[in-house]
């Protein structure tokens, strides 16, 4: 089939017949790697019933002071049965808890 193609004229532009060649291939590869990293990060929710203050402080809206308060509350009142129970800690309201739903859990599996 290709033997009947005419040879390219000198100075004529080459046509890339590979739709995934060059920059597009690199872009798709970068996208695939990014999606893999994002999905891996989402799967690693922090368990607020077992995490220490250092780990809790990494959560959005929770700094060192609130992380310490969470650990103290957990020790005094027992484990949280739902993320909403975290509102019993001074300084943590519904808005903060809603922001934690994708990155925190009260069990080993996602809540």
Describe what this molecule looks like in 3D.
It is rod-shaped and about 85 Å long. The longest helix is centred in the N-terminal third of the chain and has 21 residues, at 23-43. It has four helices and two strands; from the N terminus they run αβαααβ. It has helices at 23-43, 53-56, 64-77, 94-100; strands at residues 46-47, 104-105. With 111 residues, it is mainly alpha-helical. It is 41% helix and 4% strand. The chain has a two-stranded parallel ribbon with strand order 1-2. It has a domain at 46-104: DNA polymerase, domain 1 (Orthogonal Bundle), CATH 1.10.150.
Could you give a quick summary of the protein structure above?
This protein has helices at 23-43, 53-56, 64-77, 94-100; strands at residues 46-47, 104-105. By secondary structure, it is mainly alpha-helical.
Q: Identify the CATH architecture of the domain at 46-104.
A: Orthogonal Bundle
Overall morphology? rod-shaped
With helices defined by DSSP (H or I, 4 residues minimum), what is the helix count? 4
| CA radius of gyration | 26 Å
Q: Give the low-confidence spans.
A: none
How confident is the prediction overall: mean pLDDT?
Answer: 81
N-C termini distance: 59 Å
Please describe the biggest sheet, giving its number of strands, its sense, and whether it closes into a barrel: 2 strands, parallel
Fourth-tier CATH superfamily name of the domain at 46-104: AF1531-like domain
What share of the residues lie within helices?
A: 40-55%
Structural class: mainly alpha
| Percent strand | under 5%
The total beta strand count reads: 2
Order of helices and strands: HEHHHE
CATH topology of the domain at 46-104: DNA polymerase, domain 1
Q: Which strand order do you get reading across the main beta sheet?
A: 1-2
CATH secondary-structure class of the domain at 46-104: Mainly Alpha
């Amino acid at each position: 089939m290709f033997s009947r193609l005419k040879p390219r004229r000198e100075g004529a532009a080459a046509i890339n017949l590979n739709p995934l060649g060059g920059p597009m291939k690199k872009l798709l590869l970068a996208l695939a790697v990014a999606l893999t990293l994002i999905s891996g990060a989402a799967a690693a929710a922090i368990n607020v019933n077992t995490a220490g203050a250092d780990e809790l402080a990494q959560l959005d809206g929770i700094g060192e002071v609130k992380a310490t308060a969470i650990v103290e509350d957990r020790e005094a009142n027992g484990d949280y049965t739902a993320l909403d129970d975290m509102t019993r800690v001074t300084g943590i309201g519904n808005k903060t808890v809603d922001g934690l739903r994708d990155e925190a859990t009260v069990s080993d599996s996602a809540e």
